[in-house]
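Protein: ABC transporter ATP-binding protein
Species: Cellulomonas chengniuliangii
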Amino acid sequence: MTTTPASAPARTPAGTSPHPVLTIEDLSIDYLVDPVVHAVRNVTLSLGRGEVLGLAGESGCGKSTLAYGVNRLLKPPAVITSGRAVFHSREGYEIDLGALHGEDLRAFRWDRIAMVFQGAMNSLNPVISVQAQLEDIFTTHRPDMGRAERVERCGELLERVGVDRSRLSSFAHELSGGMRQRVMIAMAMALDPQVMIMDEPTTALDVVVQREILREITRLRSELGFAVIFITHDLPLLLEISDRIAIMREGEVVELADAMTLYTRPQHEYTKKLLGSFPSLTGARGGFIRSGVDEHVLVEAGVDEEEAR
Ligand SMILES: Nc1ncnc2c1ncn2[C@@H]1O[C@H](COP(=O)(O)OP(=O)(O)OP(=O)(O)O)[C@@H](O)[C@H]1O
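Structure follows.
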């Protein structure tokens, strides 16, 4: 895997974005079991418009709970014990996600913030064609759209994610895992959301397919301008695709920095440990240096190449 850290589009203090599309303020989430699990603890971060924010940390550190909390998808015994998430619209108004209910919340989820889950490819309905599932989104959320336009949009969506539109008539079992995941991404993009939350969207796929899909996501992000919160325990992958990376540990964000800074100048012991757990990043003459960053980049970042190795 080639690993080249993305460069952050704007240089601002690590926790903030000049033009946020989403801000998370002091968010805490508990699971009310015995003993209580403090899954997310006082998390504050913002997602810039069009930014890819990586969220990394070992299994159980609270990444999914945070994502579910932001998108109001938590179920008991989970409770939000403090804080809030605020969406900033293109038009300049703010929506407190905690204040949305019922139909407003459902509409918001597809329209503004879409989510692609871990293993989402298995959540396609097996007895309905891809076209029917895509059309369903438009029928529900864009009731004024005529049938011809709906069908055209479905074809466009598939092509956008690199699937031939002839696949519209396919059923889930007729598609490869990679194709199914692409269809799920197409569904998430259907209503042109401004934020995509992707929770391990490619983990179940083989490395080659994973890379293709990631390339597709970054291309689409540049084309369409949505922001992405990308969740994974795969730090090398995040270094490659993210503008900034937040490191979570035991429910807290312990470090948040742009990708290059996080790689070259990790501050927190846990980040260093995490970086150290990927031999391709830190091993002798690691793949990272070989394949991605040339010396100039390291020099610009103020890093001794030997030190980086
Ligand atoms: N329904 C639940 N009831 C009780 N505890 C839960 C529940 N769901 C998650 N937890 C706990 O909350 C903590 C955070 O879990 P979460 O799934 O958010 O972590 P994660 O970082 O996304 O992990 P993974 O990478 O394995 O998906 C863990 O300690 C987990 O055991």
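Remarks: The first strand starts at residue 20 and ends at 31.
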